[in-house]
Amino acid sequence: MPQNMSFKLTASQIRARTKDVTRRLGWWNLKPGDIVNAVEQCRGLKKGEKIQHLGKIKIISTRRESLDHIDALELIREGFPKMTPFDFITMFRTANHCSIYENVTRIEFGYVE
Question: Among 6, 76, 87, 94, which has the minimal tally of Cβ within 10 Å of its Cβ?
């Protein structure tokens, strides 16, 4: 049974298939070939709310890197082509309550149709 991975902040990019990289705290056990359910949100649902499935993704690669290593090309792949690295790092830190130098898991994936 595939795990659920939440894309609450980037659900529109997942729906549009314009995102093929994500950065996460944790998730270091993923391996190439793993299948994951992309969902809008899976934690903190209110009573009666259901998980909204966005599709299945297949993991291509993972690596650990410092959050501050993101560049303009990676921003496009993350689904934020108009954002600066500083803006992305600020958004990520606010959403995840972490340091600018946090080691994150960079996950590259493809869509399973």
Answer: 94
